[in-house]
């Protein structure tokens, strides 16, 4: 490793001289002492980020720019680089701190974490994100499957919790803390979404069939709602519906009422419901049904059909086959061969 050549290249960009010397000494020492490494990571001595030296990114065209480091050494090298060049090097160091590789068994110190967060906060403050970038980020996340670990964390975050709101702020709290929050002026339920948010959510669901839940998932849902009742809090302005135990003190006292009691449905909502129809998507493998508007382009084009159209079922008593809706309505319980 020719330290003089690397120093000429690295010093051509704005840098901290003290940390540049430390970086070159560290990488040179690692290069001389790392022999027969079983676990190693390839590191670009001259960083290949777009604002530094992207022309040296290819390890095949520029093998002289690559050094093998242990995961811990790789972490330290990026920490020194972040202090030396700043800017985008802090994002690279952030990746080292949050990397999900099995071989990375080093621990991020509290000092390193604080320094990283302070510099990232300064870099990101006032940062403008264009609509094109927002759209690309949104598209990248669509349809992305969640890992089992992510699903487990989401489950834990909502288990034994309730939504409460105060001054247009909503948050989840543990059920055993609900009395404390209510004494502080918090109301049970979540603040209603704005009309703009509701419209955006509606648009995002057009043409997307509901996911098919596994039997295990359905059983788990059944366990969570068993013995509970859907209610509203009469002392809340949000009219949010949630479930509570039938022996809940607020339900027994009359503060929580069944979600349909005393609820006034607007004329606009009544007209909207009249225009809805239960359908399924013929281009989806899922047979789940969902409601859509009769003016929906997919319903008009024929992609969406009535939720029972074309589905055949067989009578368990006489093996007669017919349409699902007709058979359930007129034949199954009325079959002559049914054993009473």
Structural class per helix/strand content?
alpha+beta
Strand order of the largest sheet: 4-3-5
The number of distinct helices, counting runs of at least 4 residues, comes to: 14
The share of residues in helices is: 40-55%
What's the helix and strand layout?
Blueprint: H1 3-10, H2 17-33, E1 41-44, E2 66-69, H3 71-85, H4 89-98, H5 110-124, H6 131-141, H7 148-158, E3 161-166, E4 169-174, H8 178-183, E5 187-188, H9 195-205, H10 215-225, E6 228-233, E7 242-245, H11 249-253, E8 256-258, H12 267-274, E9 276-281, E10 290-293, H13 297-301, E11 304-306, E12 312-314, E13 321-323, H14 324-331
Antiparallel strand pairs: 1-2, 3-4, 3-5, 6-7, 6-8, 9-10, 9-11, 12-13
Provide a descriptive summary of the structure in words:
The chain is α+β, with helices and mostly antiparallel strands. Among the domains are: 122 residues, no CATH class; 108 residues, no CATH class. The strands form five sheets. Strands 4-3-5 form a three-stranded antiparallel beta sheet. 41% of the residues lie in helices and 16% in strands. It starts with a helix and ends in a 9-residue tail after the last helix. α1 runs antiparallel to α2, α2 packs antiparallel against α3 and α3 packs antiparallel against α4. It is elongated and about 95 Å long. β9 and β10 form a beta hairpin.
